[in-house]
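Reading a protein record of the kind used here takes only a little practice. To see the layout at work, look at the sequence and tokens printed below.
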Amino acid sequence: MTQKRKIIFTCPTNTLEEFRAFAQQAARLGATHVSISDLPKSMWQWDLDRNDPYPNWGMLLSTIFKVVVPPELKEYLPAEYARKNLQMVTQRCAILKELGLKAAYTGKEPAWLPEAVFQAHPEWRGPRCEHPRRARHTYYAPCIDNPQVLEMYRKAVAELCRHAPIEWFNLLTNDSGGGICWSVSLYPGQNGPAWCEQRSYADRVTGFMSTIQAGAKEAGLTAEVSMYYGSGYISQAEIASVIPALQEGQSLNNKTRNSVVPNRLIGYPYYDNGVGPIPGIPQVFRIAEQLQEAGKDPSANLTVTFDYLDYPEFVGLLEQFRKNPRTDVAGRMENIHQVALAQGGVEYADVLMSVWEKISRAVHNIRAMSGDPLMLVATVNQRWITRPLVPFPMELTAEEKDYYRKFQFQANSEEEAADLMNIQGFEIINGFSGSMIAGNFFSQAAGHLQAAIDELETLRKNGLPKELALLQTRLKVLACFYRNALYTIQYQDILDRADYATPPKEDNYYPMDGDQLLMEIQNITRHDVDNTLELIRLLESTKETLVWTAPTPAEEDIFLLGPNLVEQLYKKNEITLKHQLELYRLFKRRQR
């Protein structure tokens, strides 16, 4: 890794002390920049209407106006929230200065603003940017063709950079409650104000990037701006039309005006980790392959993304590839083995490397299934892990379902919310064949994890080190999550093939075989109950963090499970068992 390239480290941290520890680690690993924009969630956006889940996507990322509120918006945006954010980034930048590092900013722009803004300033109203199947309301981003809007951005960036000298901005767009006028990638379709429809799209995008750069320049900085489409796969022609017009220090979807790739990604965020809310699952082979490929392009910048702070395997790989920057497969394997030796010593290295390989197989299976990661949009967003498996979910009382329903991402009808396979407004897995294929993926993934768990178990006779014992426990927890997904998929598939219109006609003859589907769904129910009980026992067995949860009940949201997870799991089993005999309303039972 040469120092000519930017090496940008990013990781979510909860306290200033955690940020300092991460920044110190980043400095040791050759970082030039550290992202300072991982900020507390903007719960005020969801509080506008708790019945609409869509703002939960927008709460995940910072926006410039969440840190610096322009005077024109002070009446509409929470000033105290922004003040605390600005103080936080200022303090983080002071730490970076001590360490000789520079600041980077990751966020989303242009991001939606409350409707009251556009009622007062209708000329600022830009495109609708909500997902029509995931939102109960319309959400509008400001129009970045409007000179007044651009001036607000320029001044806000200048003020931000005076407090936090940021030299690199990386901005998501056309996704998660943000968007650009007349982009084909906007979820509701191309839209925006009529007056700017005919403006060159390239001028619109590069003009916005130049505004961000102008704000930084006013604060005495030369900043690079990178933007990327969250749904870029449907807009390749549009992206291609912008790239030749990009200015110095600008890139779109990781390409400059010369179509050079200016940035390579190492690691992954929580969204793309493939293990959902389970920390401490090392994906060594995945990261090693990324480092190998990055080594083939020494001119590109690197963005090194940790999904959590305590990741010794990731740190070991970064150190090892700096020592041995080989770009062939054999070199990659050699570096992985050296990290295994450093982590486990000669006694444990081979088993540890084998365990990492099995984890890689398991996670790859899950990540390969769909565009949106199921371990996030299904297991967490639809609360698969905590909601009961019942044949008539619409009949549950408020007391029986409120603990999960109010944190379930479903903006449409209650009928859709009751369908376990309805994932944020559409079905990723549908029908017997879809269920069979997805179930096979999850079965294989759980099998790989069990093989890794068994390998670690063979070491117990010699005394399993604390770190490996914790890894084994976390793998058991992840296996529970994967099995829960498997059972949930299978359960809904059988319900979808059941006849709800015709009550079963039963005879009293003995012996009488019940419906095959009844026997299958009863077994699935029992498997999930037992799997949930195993998960409870694991969570109760240690004070170590096995699942990411909200610090307090008030901070639970659609993307974050509650701190009373064990209590909710107990409740899930209680409700499942209470309603299991309602299956007799759908299927012939074995005996009457």
Notes: The longest helix spans residues 329-367. The CA atoms of residues 158 and 215 lie 4 Å apart. The mean pLDDT is 94.
